[in-house]
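dumping this here before i forget
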Amino acid sequence: MSYKNTDDLNQELMSACDLDSFLSQNENNFETVNVQDALNEIFKEKNISKAELAARAHVSEVYLHQIFSGRRTPTRDKVLCLCIALAATLDETQGILKKSGYAQLYTKVRREAIIMHGIINGDSVSNINDKLKENGEFLLF
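structure:
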């Protein structure tokens, strides 16, 4: 069975009469959503302990270990906090969001533009939160 790109799958889905058949015929083409694998991938590249990551991301160490073990699924904002704490690039952050099943950051959304600016400039979670607060936007934590 060959790999189908998104456009091929969209076309096939739009013309499918039976959802169950579509799903079973394309099982190998669906991406699996796995937050811990996406975060672990970048965590291994960074020179940071889990204790330091938890402190930088403003999450408890217990909660962080539950995320990395797959027992807890973080919210999109917690994933962003973890990416920022890992000093992930904007591209890395967008990839982790996508692999985690969350929407990527979108520049046309004011709050997200502020977060993106912070990521691009290597700001901390606290500094990004300060900018969000100054601009009347919801905080990350």
